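Help needed: design a sequence for this.
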């Protein structure tokens, strides 16, 4: 019988993680460096702490945007990897994966979905948001 857990149970730890039970919460696995990390949803405490900064996130490379990505990623990762530090997260995130990580943390937290639902409530006849528009900020997410 396979020891791998089913989809209904917690996400199994990636093969390169030394302790299978380190991953306590389901999430989105993302390869960073030579390891794969599972990003679970933000807990309510982290969401409360970061809420204003998340709502003002502008998906650019400003110091505030970079800081909110790092802090959201850390708040997510610490749930499965309690020993991870902010300095380690800083080393793992780069311009190539910054938005992927932020989107993984925010999508699984439900904020992006809720932003779309709220937009639909406010304007039920509005067309669906285009794929290149960030529903969290409403800004075009493709470079100009």
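Sure. Designed sequence:
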């Amino acid at each position: 019988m396979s020891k791998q857990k089913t989809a209904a149970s917690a996400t199994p730890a990636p093969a390169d993680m030394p302790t299978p039970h380190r991953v306590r919460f389901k999430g989105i696995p993302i390869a960073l460096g030579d390891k794969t990390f599972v990003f679970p949803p933000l807990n309510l405490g982290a969401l409360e702490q970061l809420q204003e900064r998340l709502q003002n996130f502008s998906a650019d490379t400003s110091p505030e945007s970079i800081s909110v990505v790092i802090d959201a990623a850390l708040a997510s990762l610490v749930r499965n990897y309690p020993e991870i530090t902010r300095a380690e997260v800083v080393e793992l995130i780069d311009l190539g994966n910054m938005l992927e990580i932020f989107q993984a943390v925010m999508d699984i937290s439900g904020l992006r979905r809720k932003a779309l639902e709220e937009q639909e409530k406010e304007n039920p006849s509005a067309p669906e948001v285009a794929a290149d528009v960030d529903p969290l900020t409403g800004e075009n997410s493709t470079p100009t």
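Strands lie at 28-32, 35-39.
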